[in-house]
Amino acid sequence: MSEGEEKTEIQYNAQGKRKGKHDKPKPWDTPDIDHWKIEPFQPAWNEGGLLEESSFCTLFPQYREKYLQDVWPVVTKALKEHGIACQLNLVEGSMTVSTTRKTRDPYIIIKARDLIKLLSRSVPAPQALKILDDEMQCDIIKIGNIIRNKERFVKRRQRLLGPNGATLKAIELLTGCYILVQGNTVAAMGSFKGLKAVRRIVEDCIRNVHPIYHIKALMIKRELTKDPELANQNWDRFLPKFKKKNVKQKKSQQKEKKPYTPFPPPQQPSKIDLQLESGEYFLSAERKAAKKWQEKQEKQKEKVIENKKKREAAFVPPKETKKRKKTATSNGGVSDTRTNGVNAQDMADKLKEKFEVIKKRKPAKAMEIETFLAAPGK
């Protein structure tokens, strides 16, 4: 750079942006001005009103009909203050809002459209009417088309609520939003910053990322905002980092490969071919119906007999095992005798007959019956 050329210094405006050659000084633009502040609308800003009529219509489910009939006078009164006309059509099941000549705020019709959307998604009327405030925004998140499996969808939607609604309450406290889970949608009301966090949590939850991870990050961010020294620093080093874990799934058993043959498999007989073979094809419709009914009756009889056997099986007595009685012998030993089906008196008579036969054979020796019986003490 030559000495004749002037050194140009980089200048910045009040917001910290670099000034260009077309930037002109703005005395009203000072650092103490909040550019994000939403000022309330004054009717004097638009005294002429709107040139064209704008209207929005939305449908509501049948189960909301009774509730909407009860709260519709309250909704009509709230919209009338802003110059908005509303109509409830119970035949078509729809709600309509439209501007009138008294409407001054051009954005209030968008707020009225959000109001009827929230009412149709089961948000209570006192809560839904808060959307008419300038600082309150809403977002309806569709979660029904994120996952196809119905069982997984129901399980993950319940995960968003948590036990007794604890998880949902924690998200509401950290984001400052009102959240309502209804069917395939999630209705949220709050600031833009809170709605952005709610949408991310809800969509990640349906995609199998547990809400507790986001809740931990939001709690850490809340504590970091209290420290003014960390206001302009990167917070990534403080936030937890969670890695996805791939759960090992059981490998399906591989089927045994059949030997390769160049010829296709034989064609299976069709239903008509089977009827032709059995002769059923040539029967009339009445005889076919009679045959079908007869087969049904036979199957029913077999089923009845089978069920009867199952019921009677509970009343069949179990087989008894044969018990043996231990008796003492004359030698002092123990012998087993079976007593089932044998009378003790018959056994005694047989013993006496044998004794008489032996007595006749040996008359010389005097024998008594007591010698064959064991003494009670021995």
Describe what you observe in this structure.
Component of the ribosomal small subunit (SSU) processome. This protein has 378 residues and is an alpha+beta fold. Helix content is 37%, strand content 12%. α5 (166-175) runs parallel beside α7 (211-225). The protein is elongated and about 155 Å long. The model is unreliable at 1-7 and 337-341 (pLDDT under 50).
Uncertain spans = 1-7, 337-341
Order of helices and strands: EHEEHHEHHEEHHHHEEH
- How many helices? The count is 10
* Radius of gyration based on Cα positions: 48 Å
Widest sheet, order of strands: 1-3-2
Shape, principal axes of CA atoms: elongated
Q: State the major sheet.
A: 3 strands, antiparallel
Percentage of β-strand residues: 5-15%
Mean pLDDT: 83
Number of strands: 8
Helical fraction equals 25-40%
- What is the end-to-end distance? 141 Å
Derived from helix and strand composition plus strand pairing, the structural class reads alpha+beta
Keywords: Nucleus, Ribonucleoprotein, Ribosome biogenesis, RNA-binding, rRNA processing
Biased composition (Basic residues): 241-252
Function: Required for 40S ribosome biogenesis. Involved in nucleolar processing of pre-18S ribosomal RNA and ribosome assembly.
Subunit structure: Component of the ribosomal small subunit (SSU) processome.
